[in-house]
Automatic annotation (TrEMBL):
Organism: Bradyrhizobium diazoefficiens SEMIA 5080
Name of this chain's protein: Lipid A biosynthesis N-terminal domain-containing protein
Sequence ranges assigned to domain Lipid A biosynthesis N-terminal in this UniProt record: 22-93
InterPro entries in the record: Lipid_A_biosynth_N, UCP028440_lipidA_biosyn
Keywords: Membrane, Transmembrane, Transmembrane helix
GO molecular function list: lipid-A-disaccharide synthase activity
Gene Ontology annotations for the cellular component aspect, listed alphabetically: membrane
UniProt superkingdom: Bacteria
One GO process term, biological-process aspect: lipid A biosynthetic process
Leader peptide range in chain numbering: none
Keyword Transmembrane helix: yes
Transmembrane parts of this sequence: 20-39, 51-70, 76-95
Amino acid sequence: MTSLLNYLHDVFVVKFDAWVILGFVAQAFFTMRFVVQWIASERARKSVMPVAFWFFSVGGGALLLVYALYRKDPVFIAGQALGLVVYLRNVYFIIINGKQVSSE
C-alpha cells in the first residue's frame, strides 16, 4: 500500500507542472467532444455528430500532440498525429460543404 501511495504522490504531486496542466486541459477538450455528441444524440433521439465534436477533436488532438511531443512518447505522438489528420479532414468537409450532415 505504501508503494502505491508513493507512486501516486510522485505522479500527481512531484511531477505536477505546467505541462501536466496542459495535458489535463487537452484531455478536457478531447472529453468534451463525447459530451457534445452525447447531448446532441439525446436531443435528436438518434445518433448524430455535431460540428462541435470535430472542433473539440481538433483542439484536444492538437494540444495532446503538443503534450506528447514534449513527453517524447512515440506511441502517443503517432496516435494523436494520425487522429488529427482525420479531425482536420472532417472540419475541411464541414467548411467546404457549409454544414454537417448526419448519417441515419
